[in-house]
Amino acid sequence: MKRQLVLENGEIFVGEGFGANTVRDGEVVFNTGMTGYQEILSDPSYCDQIVTMTYPLIGNYGINRDDFESIFPAVSGLIVKEATDMPSHWRSESTLHDMLREKGIAGLAGIDTRRLTKIIREHGTLKGRLCDADEAPVEVVAELRNTQWACDQVSRVSTKMPYEIPGNGPRVVLMDFGMKKGILREINRLGCDVRVVPYNTTEKEILQLHPDGIVLSNGPGDPKDVPEAVETVNKLLGKVPLFGICLGHQLLALASGADTVKMRFGHRGANHPVKDLQTGRFYMTSQNHGYAVNPESLAQTELEVTHIAINDQSIEGLRHKRYPAFSVQFHPEATPGPEDSQQLFSRFLQDVEQFRKVGVQYA
Ligand SMILES: NC(=O)CC[C@H](N)C(=O)O
C-alpha cells in the first residue's frame, strides 16, 4: 500500500507502507547504526519520534524475544530503504513488519533515506507525518505547523509503580525516566539490590529507601520538560552518589546549575567516537540524543567536563567537582552498540562502596 512521509517544510516522500497502517506524527530523526533496529525501536527515548535508518537494509535478522529495551515501544514510526520480510537468524521469531504492526508503529519503505537524512542534516530535525499517499500534503503541512507538540513524554514512558530486582549487593535506586532495560541489566550484573522508581518520586521518598547510590536513566524529550526531576536531583546531590545516563546526564547538569540546548539534528548511532579527557583514551559509543549540555553554562557551576564528542566537540560526560556525581551523554549499557564503556558502571559501584564505608566525602 502506498504511504507517504510529509515533512513540515513541505517535502514529501512516497513509498510502500509496512507495519501498522496508522497515521503517526513525530520528530523525524536519523540513526546511523548498521544493526540494532530492535533495540532502537524499543528504546523509550524515541517516544514521539519517527526514526529513519541510514543503513539501507533493515530487518534481515528478524525480531527475537530478548532484545527489546522496553515492552511497549514508544517510537511513532520507522523509515527504511528496504525492509526484508525474509529474516534469517537462529534467534528470530518474527519479522520486523509483524512486530511493527503488533506494536502500532507505522513503517515506510522504499524511499531515498539518504536524501531524507541530508535534509535533516541541513535543516535540523523536522516534524513529519506518516500517512496514506492520498492525503493532501498541503493540509498535512498546515496541520504539522499548527500542532501543539506534547511535552509529557517522560510521564508516559516512566514506570507507574515502583518495583525491585533484589540482589545481595548495595542498594541502588534507579530513577526511571523511560529506562532502557540494558541499564537495569548492567546494574543487576554487579549484584546490586535495585529499586526502580517513577520519574516523579520525591527526594524524601527516595531517601526512605536508604539507597547507597542513585542512577538517573535515559528518557525522551527535552530535559526541561521535567522540572520536578531536576529539583529532586538537586536535593539528592551530595547526599548519595549519583550516576546519570543520557537524559539523566542532562538532568544532573540542570540540577547543578548548567543549561541544556537542543542540537540541530543530534547524535543517533552506534559508532560515535568520544574522548575521555582524564585518560586521553577514545571510545566508540552508542548514542541517542537531541539535546546537549551548553558548555558556556558550566562556568557558574561546579561541574567539570570529562568526555567530549570527537565529531562536534559537544559535551559527552560531566563530573561534579565536590560531590560523588558523574554522568555521560552516551550509552555505556550499549544495546545496541559497542560495550567499550561498560566500566563506567563499575566506576559508579566504586563510588557506592566508598559511600557505604565512609559516607559522602566533601572535597
Ligand atoms: N537517550 C536519551 O536519554 C535522550 C535524552 C533526551 N531526550 C535527548 O534527546 O537528548
TrEMBL record:
Coiled coil: none annotated. Residues 1-170 are annotated as: CPSase. The active site is at 246 (nucleophile), 331, 333. It catalyses: hydrogencarbonate + L-glutamine + 2 ATP + H2O = carbamoyl phosphate + L-glutamate + 2 ADP + phosphate + 2 H(+); L-glutamine + H2O = L-glutamate + NH4(+). SMART domains: CPSase_sm_chain. The keyword ATP-binding applies. InterPro entries: Anth_synth/Amidotransfase, CarbamoylP_synth_ssu, CarbamoylP_synth_ssu_N, CarbP_synth_ssu_N_sf, Class_I_gatase-like, CPSase_GATase1, GATASE. Keywords: Amino-acid biosynthesis, Arginine biosynthesis, ATP-binding, Glutamine amidotransferase, Ligase, Nucleotide-binding, Pyrimidine biosynthesis. GO terms for biological process: 'de novo' pyrimidine nucleobase biosynthetic process; 'de novo' UMP biosynthetic process; glutamine metabolic process; L-arginine biosynthetic process. One of its GO terms (molecular function) is carbamoyl-phosphate synthase (glutamine-hydrolyzing) activity. SUPFAM superfamilies: Carbamoyl phosphate synthetase, small subunit N-terminal domain, Class I glutamine amidotransferase-like. Pathway: Pyrimidine metabolism; UMP biosynthesis via de novo pathway; (S)-dihydroorotate from bicarbonate: step 1/3; Amino-acid biosynthesis; L-arginine biosynthesis; carbamoyl phosphate from bicarbonate: step 1/1. Its EC number is 6.3.5.5. L-glutamine binds at residues 45, 219, 221, 247, 250, 288, 290-291. Residues 1-131 form the Carbamoyl-phosphate synthase small subunit N-terminal domain. Belongs to the CarA family. PANTHER family: CARBAMOYL-PHOSPHATE SYNTHASE SMALL CHAIN, MULTIFUNCTIONAL TRYPTOPHAN BIOSYNTHESIS PROTEIN-RELATED. Small subunit of the glutamine-dependent carbamoyl phosphate synthetase (CPSase). CPSase catalyzes the formation of carbamoyl phosphate from the ammonia moiety of glutamine, carbonate, and phosphate donated by ATP, constituting the first step of 2 biosynthetic pathways, one leading to arginine and/or urea and the other to pyrimidine nucleotides. The small subunit (glutamine amidotransferase) binds and cleaves glutamine to supply the large subunit with the substrate ammonia. Composed of two chains; the small (or glutamine) chain promotes the hydrolysis of glutamine to ammonia, which is used by the large (or ammonia) chain to synthesize carbamoyl phosphate. Tetramer of heterodimers (alpha,beta)4. This is Carbamoyl phosphate synthase small chain. The gene is carA.
